[in-house]
Structure formats: structure tokens, C-alpha cells
Amino acid sequence: MPIGIYIRKKKNYDKKICVICGNKFSKREKEKPYRFKKRRCCSRQCNARLSARYCIGKKAHNNKQVERICVQCGKKKMVAPSLSKRPFCDRKCMALWYSEKQRGKAHWNWQGGITEKPSRDILYEGYKEWRRNIYRRDGFKCVLCGCDKSGELQAHHIKPRAEYKNLILDISNGLTVCKKCHKEIHYGKKI
Predict the structure, then answer these.
(1) Exposure of 65 in the CB half-sphere (CA atoms within 13 A)
(2) Up-side HSE of residue 86: CA atoms within 13 Å toward CB?
(3) Residue of 39, 62, 101, 119 with fewest CB within 10 Å of its CB?
């Protein structure tokens, strides 16, 4: 044997017998010796079966389940006692219940339908077409600053709607402006 070269001899570990299936098994290639000494099963599947034997009936919710009935759909379900006070089976049922039960007069913040001004689309017909025509006429750009970002443009009445009701849908009474310029117009800084 040349000097400086040592050959490691593999230790032979005795084969063990699996507690679950009864098959013989030996140490794996990269397994540490102390791990092999602790092992009682040949595979992960057998180990899962072994641990399942000890876990049955240990948790309170497995032994003492309570029947819960969903308020929305009426579905019956067996749940742990800690979950029995929840009135819904899932978030979808909860959302449906709140959307149906808390509308109009049943809503906690209902104030008797005090809103007098409906939206412009309902207020007068043809508003959407008027706005679209103004945008087309001005090339989908703000007349004052040239902004052409989508979602920023608004249609502005030159003469107020409240005073000139006959000019509400007149295209010559409209301007395409961005939100920033529209605020400045109404606060008296432009035009």
C-alpha cells in the first residue's frame, strides 16, 4: 500500500425488520448511523401508517364534532366545537347573505333614500353620446394641456347645465379636459 492513502472500510450495519410491513431494510447510502438506529420503518409510507396509529383520536375536534347549519344555504356540516358558532359554511355564503339582507331599508346606514341627484346617465338621455362626440371632436386630448391619458379625460360644459338646460346636449357647449384642468376650471384659475 502506498504511503498517505487510506482506504475506508464500510461498516456493516445489521438489517432491521419494518414494524409495519415486516420487510427487512438496511442503512441508506447517505444516511447517518444515528438516524438508522432510530428508524423503525422501511419507507415513508410505512412511517406514515405508524404515525397514523398514534394520532387517531388524539385531537378534540376528531372526537367531539358538532353539527353546524349554514344560515345562507342551509347546508349541514360537522365541525369542531370552536367553529360551531360561525353562522356560514364559507365566505361565498357570507357575501351572498350580506348582499341580500343588507340592501335598502335593511342596511344599517339607510337614511330614507335621501339622494336627490341621480347620475348624469339617468338624469338625461344622450349624455354618453354627447360626451363621446366631444372626445372625437377634440381628438381625445385635453384642449388646455394636451393630456391624452385614458381615464383622465372628462367632458366639461362651458355654460353650466343648471342655468342653460337647453344646451345640455349641444356639442358646441362642451370641451374635452383632463381631471387636473377640470378642477382648475371649476375653481376659477383657467378660462
Answers:
(1) 8
(2) 14
(3) 119
User: 44-77, pLDDT tens digit by residue?
Assistant: 899 888 887 776 655 544 567 888 999 999 999 8
Please report, as a single letter, which amino acid is at residue 124: Y
**Predicted TM-score (pTM) above 0.70:** no
Question: What residue ranges do the domains of the chain occupy?
Answer: 16-55, 57-93, 124-186
Say if residues 17 and 23 touch (Cβ distance below 8 Å).
yes
What is the sign, positive or negative, of the torsion defined by CA atoms of 80, 84, 85, 88? positive
Report which of 99, 64, 102 is spatially closest to residue 83, judged by C-alpha positions. 64
Summarised one tens digit per residue, pLDDT across range 107-161 is 778 877 776 666 655 667 888 899 999 999 999 999 998 888 888 899 999 998 8
